[in-house]
Design goal:
mainly beta; four-stranded antiparallel beta sheet; two-stranded antiparallel ribbon
Amino acid sequence: MKGFRETPVFREEESEPASLVRPTISDGNHLSARRHGLTAGGTWEYIHFREGDEWKGGGRLAVRLLPRVSAIHSSKD
């Protein structure tokens, strides 16, 4: 849990923190459409930690094999 608390950000020459950052992770978000046994759509995630922000997006495809079993393929850049 320590990693999700506010984390100090230091400048190179200073011993005091310049600011505080609270990490944010939003992973596995998707929006998709279902038709018969096939589900297709997009997926994205957002990661914010210390100095930068990172967005990743890609595609998601799921095929129903049995009534409660699906095979899912997801690709992110």
